[in-house]
Amino acid sequence: MLDVLRTEYQRVLQQLTKLQPAEKQYLLVTGNYWAFTLTDGALRMLVVLYFHQLGYSPLSIAMLFLFYEFFGIVTNLFGGWLGARFGLNATMNLGLGLQIVALLMLTVSDSALTVAWVMSAQALSGIAKDLNKMSAKSSVKSLVGSGQENALFKWVAVLTGSKNALKGVGFFLGGVMLSIMGFRYSIIFMAICLFAVWCSSLKYLRKDLGKAKNKPKFTQIFSKSKSVNQLSLARLFLFCARDVWFVVALPVYLASEFDWDFWLVGSFMAIWVILYGLVQASAPRLISLQQSDQQYHQAFIWAAALSAIPLLMAVLLALGVSAYVVVIGGLLLFGGVFAINSALHSYLIVSYAEAEHVSMDVGFYYMANASGRLLGTLLSGALFQVSGLEVCLLMSTVLLSAAAWVSRKLP
Q1: For residue 230, is it within any domain?
Q2: Domain range for residue 292?
Q3: What share of the chain is helix, strand, coil (3-state, %, to 5)?
Q4: Cα Rg of the chain (Å, integer)
Q5: Is residue 255 part of a domain?
Q6: Has residue 5 been placed in a domain?
């Protein structure tokens, strides 16, 4: 057995030595993104379930993520400018370091875990997450040669899809670790693992990755591209529509209405996100972008199709159809169609972005993404607490219809 493992290890090393420098950097960036995503997904599930266990209301739990999403907006706006001036190496490693600090902040005693303290830790985590994501997505444009649109679509889809699949694994780990290790020891374990990844990134990530030759001015942080602005608005509506029922309402609904244990809630949401990520990574094989106008047309078609799913779920729940069938079946269908939408958007922004200042366009776009998540998170807690899951689904339909309308006008 040891000989087999040694042979396989040597084979993998030989394959790695044959890779081009750009491919090696892509793997390193992807590895950093994967490690960060695992801790981010696990942390979200740990916070939602642990504070639900402590008796917090859905709206109160949503408020814990207020700074997480708000500072994500700020980070994407300024992070792209920082990446262009100082390089994506700096912003990616800064994100990893801040996430370690955010995790360590949550290792205090239960009496010190006040709402203000948790919101502060989540603020740091939000900054870290969007620095890491912006750096990873922007670096792909720098590593793929100009004019290779199919390769760009594939690399972006694989990076994004694999990240979301691992976020699902993080949800699962969060639920399991909370059941087995408890809140504090789960956080400590994640901080140690991420520290090892951070050390590796500091040593091997290329120093000049994504650094602009002409330093952009601070006044250039807002995009002047019509295509980037319209796609960013569509992204805002798209992710607000997802999070308005997925972030707070759904896990609390599963725990309270279905009476599921923490590990079961985490496992189910993990399976959903993993399948969502696999579909997203497979998007280049599921849809064709051979003609230049197809990518924009399909962005509208897929958003319009997605808007019908939460509407159908709300109607079926109102008619008294089994909540198990509607919620579980509808969530799986929603995830598949949403994954195609997200993959198209992720490709389009990297394609639209200017090569010289790619991190600034990508940062502006993900600022809109974070704004959508912030609005969706707040609406999820408020609407679910006041009116229940059905109203959250109806609001999702309205927002998705808006995303489809904006996508129809993409240049």
Answers
A1: yes
A2: 20-205+221-408
A3: 85, 0, 15
A4: 21
A5: yes
A6: no
Which pLDDT score is estimated for 8?
Answer: 44
| 3-state SS, residue 282 | coil
Answer yes or no: are the C-beta atoms of 82 and 91 closer than 8 Å.
Answer: yes
Q: How many CB atoms sit inside 10 A of residue 91's CB?
A: 29
pLDDT at 9 over 50: no
As given in the structure block, the two tokens for residue 50 are 């642990």
pLDDT one-digit tens code per residue, 180-198: 888 889 999 999 999 998 9
Q: How many domains does the chain have?
A: 1
Within a domain: residue 214?
Answer: no
296-312 pLDDT, tens digit each:
678 888 999 999 999 99
**Rounded to 5 degrees, what are φ and ψ at 65?**
-95, 5
From residue 47, alpha-carbon distances to 39, 65, 187 in Å are 12, 9, 10
Amino acid at 236: L
What is the CATH classification number for the domain harbouring 80? 1.20.1250.20
Q: What are the CA-CA distances from residue 4 to residues 8, 51, 320, 399 (Å)? A: 6, 47, 57, 54
pLDDT tens figures, 152-191: 777 777 777 777 778 778 888 888 888 888 888 999 999 9
Read off the tokens for 289.
Answer: 């972008």
Beta carbons of 249 and 384 less than 8 angstroms apart:
yes
Q: Residue 246 CA to chain centroid, in angstroms?
A: 13
